[in-house]
UniProtKB/TrEMBL annotation:
Lineage: Bacteria, Pseudomonadati, Spirochaetota, Spirochaetia, Leptospirales
Keywords linked to the UniProt accession: DNA-binding, Transcription, Transcription regulation
UniProt xrefs under SUPFAM superfamilies: Winged helix' DNA-binding domain
Molecular-function GO term, any one: DNA binding
Signal peptide: none
Protein name listed in UniProt: DNA-binding transcriptional ArsR family regulator
PROSITE patterns per the UniProt record, alphabetical: HTH_ARSR_2
Residues covered by the HTH arsR-type domain: 1-87
Amino acid sequence: MNAFAVLADETRRDIVRLVAKNGELTSSEISQNFQISPPAVSQHLKLLKDAKILHVKKEAQKRIYSLNQQGMKEMEDWILEVKNLWTKRLDKLDRYVIKLKMERANDKK
């Protein structure tokens, strides 16, 4: 599943915000912030890890989650690419509107 599909779920977006705010959290610390069962949180964490949004490191029995900078960068790059495409289209539209206004102003003279 791709990162955007994974982030379509509000709980997973909330988990990402929580981890981003705190830097690193164990799965238990994450679970304490939700009204769902720890196994359900674990399923969300697995999807976030598989989508490369979160990174997990193991310390003894603990799983410690942090943001996966590479996965976040890939999403950011895609968003910026789309934004730049729209900016170019809007700039083109702006130039066209200015051209039309100038033509109308010249026609009135």
